[in-house]
Design a protein that fits this description.
mainly alpha, single chain
Length: 59
């Protein structure tokens, strides 16, 4: 039984999977944060550009 506990503790086969899950979750979280920042800033920029174009319409 003691030998089984020692080998179980030394076994690291699943540790890489846990690392990849954590890294993937971090990348997805950063992508979501970047998307929401870009979306809000792009909407503001498009609104400002549309307003500037509408102001230039002097027919």
């Amino acid at each position: 039984m003691l030998n089984f506990i020692k080998t179980f503790r030394a076994d690291e086969d699943g540790a890489v999977t846990v690392d990849w899950v954590v890294l993937t979750a971090a990348v997805v979280g950063m992508a979501i944060a970047a998307y929401s920042t870009i979306e809000s800033n792009a909407s503001t920029l498009i609104g400002a550009a549309g307003g500037a174009v509408a102001d230039q319409n002097d027919f």
